[in-house]
Amino acid sequence: MRSGDFKETYADLIVLSDSRLVWAWAGVLVVALVVAPFVVNAYVLSLLTLVLITVTGALGLNLLTGLTGLISLGHAGFLLLGAYGYAIVVAKHNLHPLLGFLAAGVAPALFAIVVGLPSLRLRGLYLAITTLAFSYIISDLILEAKSITDGARGITVQRPEFFGLDFSSDPSFALLCAFVAAVALFACLNIQRSRIGRAFMAIRDNDIAARTMGVNLQAFKLYAFMTSAFITGIAGALMGIYLSFVSVEGFPFLFSIEALAILIVGGLGSALGAVLGTVFIVLLPEAIRILFSWFGGALESLLSTGVHEVKSIAYGVAIILFLRFEPRGLVGVWRDAKRLWTHWPLKY
Amino acid sequence: MTAPLLQLDALTRTFGGLRAVSEVSFDVMRGEICSVIGPNGAGKTSLFNLISGVLRPTSGRILFDGADITRERPARFASLGIGRTFQNLALFKHGTVVENILVGRHIHTKSSVLESAFFFGRTRAEEIAAREKVEEIVEFLEIEQIRDAVVGQLSYGQQKRVELARALACEPKLLLLDEMVSGMNQEETEDIARFVLDIRDELGITVLMIEHDMRVVMDISDRVQVLNFGQKIAGGTPDQVRNDPAVLDAYLGRRGRPSEPAGSAAHGL
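^ Those are the sequences you sent over. The predicted structure of the assembly is below.
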C-alpha cells in the first residue's frame, strides 16, 4: 500500500499527473498509436481513425456539456461547419491545408456566438431545443448558400499534404488524427486545471455563486460555446477529409446524439471519460455486428438492412443503462477499479 | 474616527407588493465586525443579496469605499472587494476543496482561454501563485485534512468552512457572512467565532454578518443592526441593541397587548 504524499514546491501541485507510472503508460500509448496504423489491417485502421476523430469531437462537446453544464444537441452543426470550413478553403480555393484547419475551427466558433447569445438565459431542455434548431438552420443555410458551398452537390476533399508530409495514405492520415486528438486532449486537460475550466465548472454547479466570485457568466458561457465549437469543428474537418466528401447528408443529427451518448457512457465532465466513452460507443456497433453474426440468419440481415436504426437503438439502450446503473460512467468504473487495485484486500 | 467602508443610503427592494428591504440606511466602518439581526423574513438575506450584487435595488444607493456601486454589473462586485458566503451552501459540489477555493482566485488571475489551453508562461505562473495563496487559506482555516476531498461528501460544518475559505480567496475588503454558524455545534460555533475575529484582526477584512446565534452576535460584534419586516428598527453597540424596546418588541412581542407584529403595514398585504 502506498502512503504519504509529499510535495516540495507549489509547482508540483499543479502538474497534470504526479505519477511516473501514468506518464510511462501514456508514453506506451503514444508509441502504440504511432506504430499501430502501420501494422493493423485496413478495417481496424478505419475503426482506429474513426475513434481518434470522434475523440476530438467528444472532447469538444465535453467542454460545453460536461464541464460547463450547457447541453447541446447541435454539435452535428458545428461538425458540419468545420467540415465545410475546411472544404471551402482547401478544396474550393486551393489554400494551404493549415489555413483550412484554422477555418474549420474559427467558422464554428463564430457561429457559436450566434447560437450562444440567445442561449445565455436558457438552460436544460430549452437550450437543447435551441441548439437542435441551430443545427437544422446550419444544414439549411449550407444547402441554400449554393455560391459558397455548392449546396446539395457537396464538395470533394483530398487528403492534405503540407510541410513535405503526405497524409494521403490511410496510416499517415490516422497519425494526423492521433496528433490532433492528443493536442485536443492536452488542451482540454489544461483548461480543466486552469482558471477557465474552474469558471466553467463553477457555472455548472452554481451560477449565482460563480458570479459572486467574479465570473462573468455571459462571457464565460460564450467562451465555453466558442472553445467547444472550435475543437468540434476541427473534428468535423478531419471527418470530412476521412470521408473524402463533405455534404449535409454526411453529418446527420445522429452525430449529436452519439456525442451525448459518449459523454454519458464515459462520464460527464471528464476528459478521460470522453476518451473511454468514444472507444465504447464507436466499437459498440462492431460488437453488435459480431454478436449478430453468431446468431446468424434473420438478425444478420436485420443489421444489413437497418444499420442506422440498430445503432440508434444501441445508443439509447447504452445511455439508459449507464444512467441507471453507473451515472459516473466508465470513468467511475475506472476509478473504482483503481481504488480496488491500490487498497486490496483492505476496503480503504 | 475611521471612514465608513460601506454606506447604505435608503436602500429599497420590492418584490411586487412586498417590500423585502425598505429604506435601510447604515454605515459599516473599516475594520469593524457588524452584525445584522432580525426575525425570520426580516429581509436580512435580501439585504445581503443587494450588497453583493445578486439583486438590484429598486431604489436607494450603495456606496463602497467612497464610490457609488449601485449600478455596477453583478460580476464586478467581487473585483470591487466584496466577498460573501451563502446561507444555504452554494459550493461547487463536484469539485474538490482546493478547486472550490481556487475559484475564489478567479478575479486575481487573468489567463485567456488560449493561454490556459497551452498552460505556458503566465497561466503556469498564475496557477502556482493561486495555489500558494490557497494553501495559506487552507492553513488559516485549519482544513488541511480535507483539502483534496470532493466538497459534496463533506459534513455541513466543513462545507461552511470551505465556503468561508472560498470567500477569503477573493481577498475582499468587506466579507459578508450569511448565517455561518447555523446548524453547528458549540465547538464548531466557537471555531467560527474565533476565525471571524482572526479575519478582522490578522487579515484586516471588515466583516458584516447575519447571525441568529445571539451569543456570537453579542460577543464579537462591534455594532449590531436590527431589521424587521424589511425596515431597520435599531442599530448600535450590542449593549444598546440588547436593551432597545423596539428590538424587544420584534423578538418577544409587546407586553400586555394582543401581539400585533410591528410594522405590519410595511409587510404589504
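The longest helix of chain B spans residues 121-140. Residues 259-269 of chain B have pLDDT under 50 and may be disordered.

Shout if you want it in another format.
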